[in-house]
Specification:
The complex is a heterotrimer. Chain A is mainly α. Helices cover 73% and strands 3% of the residues of chain A. Chain A has a single domain (2-278), classed as ABC transporter involved in vitamin B12 uptake, BtuC (Orthogonal Bundle). In chain A, strands 1-2 form a two-stranded antiparallel sheet. In chain A, helix 2 crosses helix 9, helix 5 packs antiparallel against helix 8 and helix 9 (219-233) runs parallel beside helix 11. By secondary structure, chain B is mainly α. Chain B has a domain at 30-243. Chain B has helices at 2-26, 30-53, 63-81, 93-111, 116-136, 138-141, 160-183, 185-195, 197-202, 207-233, 238-241, 244-257, 264-283, 288-303, 308-323; strands at 147-148, 235-236. Chain B has a two-stranded antiparallel ribbon. In chain B, helix 4 (93-111) runs antiparallel to helix 10, helix 7 packs across helix 8 and helix 13 packs antiparallel against helix 14 (288-303). Chain B is globular, with a radius of gyration of 21 Å. Chain B starts with a helix and ends in a 23-residue tail after the last helix. Chain C has helices at 42-49, 72-78, 95-100, 119-130, 146-157, 176-191, 203-209, 227-232, 234-241; strands spanning 2-13, 16-27, 31-35, 57-62, 65-66, 80-82, 164-168, 195-199, 212-217, 220-225. The termini of chain C are far apart. The mean pLDDT of chain C is 87. Classes of the chains: A mainly alpha, B mainly alpha, C alpha/beta. Chains A and B meet through helix 4, helix 9 and helix 11 of A and helix 5, helix 12 and helix 14 of B.
């Protein structure tokens, strides 16, 4: 039991890293633009399918393929922002939820049309190969995936905290109007933030596609988990998203050992309810009162 | 002209009611009535959703969960109470509403501790948790294998008709509730919350209680409709009765017709549902209709964010003001003027 | 007898002390001006009294009953109304509907009744007429001019017949002609028995309207008394000039 629990915890940390990456894009978009991108799950699945195509057609390794898919998804994100989000002037908060939901449906529909509803999986060699760790074996893909996510998250934090552009993003997150007043191109920052969100979805999708079988429908389950993660972390907090993803996934994996695997997803819900009761603003969130 | 303004809507309402009641006689083809059953179902669902989403501005994307809850209540009730096929199962529809409302109470109490952004997220999460519960509580719900309901022994031509009237009654009930709320002080409070929640509090509106009441009423109505649906299709599968697409469909219809108006969701459902059915029928297997659906949604939000009813009303009011003898032209609302909700009813 | 008693009220935001050990006493029937330089904590005092933000320490009693810890809707129900800086009304409701939103002390009973008919509507129209904006009753709040919004906000607050009304900058952004009208409305409501606490920067307006002044600086009460005495007080002058 103890070794099982340890194994579950280690696995939880490793998959938590992947969720941290996917959720970081979501929370970044919320932080900068104050919109909830309900389409993030569908974009992760799109990323998984892109990697799948590269892998199956040209035998390009999914990790290597990110050199193509991440910039591609970044561009898609910028275009989506320009075409669908920016025109929303009034009632941005609620309309954007619906627009991104509609985008998710559209992506689901197109993927369903092209790839059918059959489950797919990326069968790479490191999906089966494993390394020993603490007396049990861990599949290599989790290790690779975790390393990749660490690298991308690290790069993201570097950009945010060490560059002028990062400062502009953070300023926009703190106060959109004030940022505009001091000459920051808030619209441009938003487009880039949306693009970055999509790029993280591409990377998350590649790893998700190797570790999990997916079909065009998979985005519903994914988005509800990711949204729960960012509520726990505090909407708009990157650090919160990372911590929350680790907490959620470790708890889930441990719970699946103690209780039963099919109920482990409930952990997300139980934690969500607990957060809302005890600390509605999340771990790192600030309690916002619109204006008094 | 004033008399015309006052009576035109009543005459229109009467005509619509007559057509709705006589529809199975006018168009007895079972396939048409099938379309009518689903259309009436969505008239009810979109109007019920609008009580929360439209009036208060708190968008719920998880109402499909309440729909499913109602469906399971009916399915389980029929099984455990040993109710045979026929009109008996319809008697459980109020119970479906009651249980769904009771379930929505704690959910709303928790979800409404936060403002709009988190509320959306909670509604999505609740929907998926309900679906997961339905799949995993195999002893109760039959898991992914689902539940079967008794099949009524009505003749093929008549089979759909009782369901049509059941849906018509529920849709009328929902519209009546929505109308009554819209004209009450409670309804004004909900619209005030949508406009400025803090200000509403400052003039004594008990915002928490109001939002919760709207949420529970909305959920209970959706639950009842879910109950009738379960009996109509005679089976309850987790993925079918708790389908995110059902949840987003109500939202789309309410948006298309006009959020926060009484007639908007009705109009939206009448326009979208027949189109959706024919698309699903023609392209269902390929899920390509999803693309169409998403396209319509995007076009509506980007080009007509206020919906049909408010836009048309503005046009006619403008016409009326210019055309009316001796009527001073009111100041034309500039582009920054927010959309009128249902300006106190016609 | 004092209507509202604020006792040793304190509030800090992070490291900033917004309201510091502040005590106020508002006698029934008065019009008290709450003045002080920008950032002296006037609006925070309003938000504390009306329950929008929780206090750190101190107590507030309205008609000898503690109102500390109650929510804004309860406090309005007890009889304390307020307006906001930059007049806040409901833009997508008509002016008349704006008047019908406030929930009276009577409780939840009337909530299920139709909002449109009966004597509440008559009262609303009478109040709009009293404020000289009866002609805009059917216009949407968002289509009103700023001055009309100010009057509508005050009119709506009066609908539940509050005994104490907190006005946050009633003269802000208003032209001189309207200013005189607003002052006149306040005086007439006051003559009808309503007590006012007014935050205002326009000194002419305050000196003219208020029976007594309280001066706040850095969250503390530094002076108080008759307007002419306060004007002559060197401490007040120092606070304003930032000496």
């Amino acid at each position: 039991m103890a070794s099982q629990l340890l194994q579950a915890a280690v696995l939880g940390v490793l998959t938590g890293g992947v969720y941290a990456l996917m959720a970081s894009g979501l929370t970044l978009i919320f932080g900068v633009m104050r919109i909830i991108n309900v389409g993030q799950g569908a974009l992760v699945i799109l990323g998984a399918y892109l990697s799948f195509v590269l892998f199956n057609t040209w035998h390009i390794d999914p990790f290597l393929g990110l050199l193509v898919t991440m910039p591609a998804m970044f561009l898609i994100g910028v275009v989506l922002e320009l075409v669908f989000i920016r025109p929303l002037k009034t009632d941005r908060e609620s309309l954007s939820v619906l627009v991104t939901y509609a985008l998710a449906l559209g992506i689901e529909g197109v993927l369903g049309f092209v790839f059918t509803a059959n489950y797919r999986e990326l069968s790479v060699w490191y999906d089966t190969a494993s390394v020993p760790l603490f007396g049990f074996r861990i599949t290599l893909v989790y290790v690779f995936g975790f390393a990749l996510c660490l690298a991308i998250l690290g790069a993201l934090f570097l950009v945010l905290y060490r560059t002028t552009f990062g400062a502009a993003i953070r300023a926009t997150m703190l106060n959109r109007t004030a940022a505009q007043l001091i000459g920051i191109d808030v619209e441009g920052v938003s487009a880039v933030a949306f693009g970055i969100g999509m790029a993280t979805a591409a990377a998350g999708g590649a790893v998700f596609g190797i570790t999990t079988a997916f079909n065009p429908n998979s985005h519903y389950d994914l988005i509800s988990r990711l949204l729960t993660v960012i509520v726990l972390g505090g909407l708009g907090s990157l650090r919160g998203a990372v911590v929350a993803a680790l907490i959620m996934l470790v708890t889930q994996d441990v719970a699946s050992v103690i209780i039963a695997p099919e109920w482990s997803a409930f952990v997300f819900f139980v934690i969500l309810v607990a957060v809302l009761l005890v600390r509605p603003q999340g771990l790192y969130g600030v309690r916002v009162r619109e204006r008094i | 002209m004033n008399a015309a303004r006052r009576f035109a809507p009543r005459v229109a309402l009467l005509l619509v009611a007559i057509v709705a009641i006589l529809l199975p006689v006018l168009e007895p083809n079972p396939a048409s009535i099938n379309v009518a059953v689903f259309t009436m179902m969505y008239v009810g669902l979109a109007s019920a959703w609008n009580i929360m989403g439209g009036y208060t501005g708190y968008i719920s994307l998880g109402h499909a969960g309440f729909f499913g809850l109602g469906a399971y209540t009916l399915g389980l009730g029929v099984a455990h109470l040993g109710i045979g096929p026929g009109y008996g199962p319809f008697a459980l529809v109020p119970l479906a509403g009651l249980l769904t409302g009771l379930f929505a109470l704690p959910i709303g109490w928790i979800a409404l501790r936060t403002r709009a952004a988190t509320f959306v997220i909670v509604t999505i999460a609740v929907m998926f948790m309900l679906q997961l519960a339905a799949m995993n509580l195999i002893g109760l719900t039959g898991g992914t294998g689902g539940l079967s309901l008794p099949v009524p022994r009505w003749s093929g031509d008549f089979y759909n008709t009782p369901f049509y009237y059941a849906m018509l009654i529920l849709a009328s009930l929902t519209i009546a509730v929505s109308w009554w709320i819209r004209r009450s002080k409670f309804g004004l409070g909900l619209l005030a919350i949508r406009d400025d929640e803090d200000k509403a509090m400052a003039v004594g509106v008990p915002t928490r209680q109001f939002k919760l009441a709207a949420f529970v009423i909305s959920a209970a109505l959706v639950g009842m409709i879910g109950g009738v649906y379960a009996y109509y299709v005679t089976y309850v599968y987790p993925e079918f009765v708790i389908d995110p697409l059902t949840g987003i469909s109500m939202v789309l219809m309410a948006f298309l017709g006009g959020l926060g108006t009484l007639t908007g969701p009705v109009l939206g459902a009448l326009l979208v549902e027949p189109a959706q059915l024919s698309l699903a029928y023609n392209f269902g297997a390929s899920r390509l209709y999803l693309v169409f659906y998403s396209g319509v949604f995007l076009v509506v939000i980007l080009l007509l964010p206020r919906g049909i009813v408010p836009s048309v009303r503005d046009l006619t009011i403008g016409w009326w003001t210019r055309g009316g003898p001796g009527r001073a032209a009111g100041p034309s609302p500039g582009p920054s003027t927010p959309a009128p909700g249902n300006v106190v009813a016609p | 007898m004092s209507l509202l008693e604020v006792e040793r009220l304190s509030k800090r935001f992070g490291g900033v002390v917004a309201v510091d050990d502040c005590s106020l006493s508002i006698p029934k029937g008065s019009i008290i001006g709450l003045i002080g330089p920008n950032g002296s904590g006037k609006t925070t005092v309003f938000n504390l009294i009306t329950g929008f933000i929780p206090r750190d320490a101190g107590d507030m009693r309205f008609k000898s009953r503690s109102i500390a810890g109650l929510g804004p809707d309860r406090i309005y129900g007890l009889g304390i109304g307020r307006t906001f800086q930059l007049a806040r009304i409901f833009p997508r409701l008509t002016a008349l509907e704006n008047m019908l939103v406030p929930v009276r002390r009577a409780g939840m009973g009337g909530l299920l009744a139709r909002a449109q008919w009966g004597h509440e509507k008559t009262r609303a129209m009478a109040m709009l007429e009293f404020m000289d904006i009866g002609s805009v009753a059917s216009m949407l709040g968002g289509a009103l001019s700023y001055g009309q919004r100010k009057l509508l906000e005050l009119a709506a607050v009066m609908m539940a017949e509050p005994e104490l009304v907190l006005l946050d900058e009633p003269a802000g952004g208003v032209n001189p002609a309207l200013l005189e009208r607003i002052a006149d409305h306040i005086r007439r409501l006051n003559a009808g028995g309503v007590t006012f606490l007014v935050v205002e920067h326009n000194m002419g307006f305050v000196m003219n309207l208020c029976t007594e002044l309280v001066v706040l600086a850095q969250g503390r009460v530094i002076a108080g008394g008759k307007p002419e005495d306060v004007r002559a007080n060197p401490v007040v002058l120092d606070a304003y000039l930032g000496a």
